[in-house]
């Protein structure tokens, strides 16, 4: 039916009159109208939303601003611990979002097949035009890509990557030796060097290229800072993903040269490496690069190219780039943060440090670990107390500081006996979940690695409620690599050197962008 805008006698029709009046009102009073609608929306969110019964900060019940501010401060992990202490197991953190503290509920939320899908938070992480395993929010597409990408990340494939890790450990050790020789009792920034180590390992593993952080002993080209700035943006804007269209996805953004990351060291290297191996063929994928010896090593990009050649429809050229490049973002700060937490806690507790040193020297004496050189994965498993410390570090200071958030399926769902309506965002924060007293004991807030060794059955039960690597279909794909790397470097450093915190009692500086990026782990170091 056509709308009549003008009456036959030339006078304005009622419809036209209404449109005119509305236009005049909107153009004159747009600001008060906008403010009024924001206010009405906030009042609706606060008093009429189905989530109104859940407690939480007033601002959070009205708007997403609370989440934005908490993320911008970089303290989401600590804010969430405080929130749950104050308000209980279910806290409203945004008009349509609640945070849970029950590890049982988190298990359901993250388990595969329950249809709690990723929220648009992830779509902010670049590259939006070609999402990788981490950023892909379409579950079916994610499953296809992950099937290909899982192959190079299996534990068997990881053994092939060991030589890359071994070389990087040698370089780290030589840098520590140099420090001892040149500056004697000077302070060594162990945290920074662990950070450089994690990045350099990934450069080698992903592209057979060293980023040169350890070699130069600095953040070359500010590459780490660039990644961290990008993660800070993703974390904050991810709370209001629509904003990304006004900001980074805005075509204007691309004309501002200093905002583009195309020329950032890591992206540049990934693009160069792709270029060197194109057009993709089996022989060019596994090209002999500087690092390639006769030890059968094959980098991640090569494995991904082979995956692409097997199934080019499902795993395109863009996916090879996105997954290899994404590995640097997902795997570097996370692994560095975990190692920093480990050393921070071990060195802060004299009894822990003594026990670990005793375990290592006994293992050397018994021949279960070598007296010199690098350890294998299996040898590191012969150090149960060290393994308990690693678990405890990942429990009290998990590397992901922001929430892992999923959407309740449209028909609604129960979590730990509580029903939530379809479309509700449900957030789980590892720092909160890992402090659950019913699961980890009354002393869950304390560092006490012995809890993992007291009772095998109890340890297995606690392990089921550890979320440092996420869970379900989105379980971290790089966990084998991260654990292999950590299990090789940590005992080697503890066996060959003696560390003493330069500022005992001082907290690490921690900024949660997505991962908890830490600094301030400074120590005196000498040879053992
Ligand atoms: C100790 C080190 C690491 C920790 C603590 C860690 C933690 C996590 C967590 C918690 C998730 C789930 C995120 C979510 O669901 O929102 C995740 C996913 C992921 N991680 Fe890791 N990660 C580590 C190392 C790595 C490494 C070394 C790589 C790659 C080289 C990697 C690649 C990924 C990818 C691709 C995903 C997405 C998986 C999916 O959604 O299917 N991570 N990681």
Write the SSE topology.
Blueprint: H1 14-47, H2 58-62, H3 65-73, H4 76-87, E1 90-94, E2 97-100, H5 103-110, E3 117-118, H6 139-153, H7 155-183, E4 188-189, H8 190-207, H9 213-216, H10 223-237, H11 243-246, H12 251-254, H13 265-277, H14 282-285, H15 300-310, H16 317-348, H17 350-366, H18 377-380, H19 384-396, E5 404-407, E6 413-415, E7 418-420, E8 425-428, H20 430-433, H21 437-440, H22 456-464, H23 479-496, E9 497-501, E10 509-512, E11 516-519, E12 522-527
Parallel strand pairs: 2-8
Antiparallel strand pairs: 1-2, 3-5, 4-12, 5-8, 6-7, 9-12, 10-11
Residues 133-134, 146, 326-327, 330-331, 334-335, 338, 399-400, 404, 468-470, 474, 476-479, 481-482 line the site of protoporphyrin IX containing FE (HEM).
Structure description:
The protein is α+β, with helices and mostly antiparallel strands and 528 residues long. The protein has a single domain (58-527), classed as Cytochrome p450, CATH 1.10.630.10. α3 (65-73) packs antiparallel against α10 and α6 (139-153) packs across α15 (300-310). It is globular, with a radius of gyration of 26 Å. The strands form 4 sheets. Strands 1-2-8-5-3 form a 5-stranded mixed β-sheet, with helices on both faces. It has a 3-stranded antiparallel β-sheet with strand order 4-12-9. It has a two-stranded antiparallel sheet with strand order 6-7. It contains 23 helices and 12 strands. β1 (90-94) and β2 (97-100) form a beta hairpin. The longest helix is centred in the first third of the chain and has 34 residues, at 14-47. The termini are far apart. It has helices at residues 14-47, 58-62, 65-73, 76-87, 103-110, 139-153, 155-183, 190-207, 213-216, 223-237, 243-246, 251-254, 265-277, 282-285, 300-310, 317-348, 350-366, 377-380, 384-396, 430-433, 437-440, 456-464, 479-496; strands at 90-94, 97-100, 117-118, 188-189, 404-407, 413-415, 418-420, 425-428, 497-501, 509-512, 516-519, 522-527. The model is unreliable at 289-293 (pLDDT under 50). Bound molecules: protoporphyrin IX containing FE. Protoporphyrin IX containing FE is lined by residues 133-134, 146, 326-327, 330-331, 334-335, 338, 399-400, 404, 468-470, 474, 476-479, 481-482.
């Amino acid at each position: 039916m056509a709308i009549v805008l003008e009456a036959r006698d030339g006078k304005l029709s009622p419809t036209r009159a209404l449109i005119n009046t509305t236009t005049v009102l909107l153009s004159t009073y747009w600001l008060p109208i906008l403010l009024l609608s924001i206010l009405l929306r906030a009042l609706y969110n606060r008093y009429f939303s189905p989530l109104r019964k859940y407690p939480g900060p007033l601002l959070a019940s009205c708007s997403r601003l609370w989440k934005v501010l908490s993320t911008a401060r970089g303290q989401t992990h600590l804010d969430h611990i405080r929130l749950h202490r104050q308000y209980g197991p279910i806290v409203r953190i945004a008009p349509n979002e609640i945070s849970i503290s029950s590890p049982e509920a988190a298990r359901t939320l993250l388990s595969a097949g329950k249809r709690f899908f990723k929220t648009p938070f992830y779509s902010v992480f670049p590259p939006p035009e070609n999402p990788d395993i981490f950023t892909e929010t379409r579950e079916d597409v994610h499953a296809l890509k992950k099937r290909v990408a899982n192959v190079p990340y299996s534990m068997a494939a990881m053994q092939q990557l060991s030589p890359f890790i071994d070389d990087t450990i040698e370089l780290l050790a030589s840098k520590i030796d140099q420090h001892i020789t040149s500056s004697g009792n000077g302070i060594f920034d162990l945290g920074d060097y662990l950070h450089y180590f994690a990045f350099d390992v990934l450069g080698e593993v992903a592209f057979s290229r060293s980023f040169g952080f350890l070699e130069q002993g600095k953040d070359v080209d500010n590459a780490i800072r660039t990644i961290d700035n990008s993660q800070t943006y993703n974390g904050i804007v991810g709370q209001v993903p629509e904003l990304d269209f006004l900001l980074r996805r805005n075509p204007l953004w691309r004309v501002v040269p200093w905002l583009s990351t195309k020329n950032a060291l890591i992206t540049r290297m990934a693009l160069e490496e792709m270029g060197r191996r194109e057009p993709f063929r089996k022989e060019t994928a596994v090209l002999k690069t500087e690092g390639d010896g006769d030890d059968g090593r094959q980098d991640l990009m090569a494995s991904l190219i082979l995956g692409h050649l097997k199934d080019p429809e499902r795993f395109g050229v863009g996916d090879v780039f996105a997954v290899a490049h994404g590995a640097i973002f997902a795997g570097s700060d996370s692994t560095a943060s975990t190692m920093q937490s480990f050393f921070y806690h071990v060195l802060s507790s004299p009894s822990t440090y003594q026990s670990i040193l005793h375990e290592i020297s006994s293992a050397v004496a018994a021949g279960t670990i070598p007296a010199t050189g690098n350890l294998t994965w299996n040898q590191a498993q012969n150090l149960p107390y060290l393994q308990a410390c690693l678990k405890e570090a990942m429990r009290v200071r998990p590397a992901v500081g922001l929430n892992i958030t999923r959407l309740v399926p449209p028909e609604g769902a129960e979590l730990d006996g509580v029903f939530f309506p379809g479309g509700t965002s449900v957030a789980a924060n590892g720092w909160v979940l890992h402090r659950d007293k019913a699961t980890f004991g009354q002393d869950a807030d304390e560092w006490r690695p012995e809890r993992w060794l007291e009772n095998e059955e109890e340890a297995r039960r606690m392990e089921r409620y550890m979320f440092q690597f996420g869970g379900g279909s989105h379980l971290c794909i790089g966990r084998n690599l991260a654990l292999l790397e950590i299990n090789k470097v940590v005992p080697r450093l503890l066996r060959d050197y003696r560390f003493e915190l330069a500022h005992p009692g001082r907290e690490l500086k921690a900024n949660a962008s997505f991962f908890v990026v830490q600094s301030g782990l400074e120590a005196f170091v000498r040879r053992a």
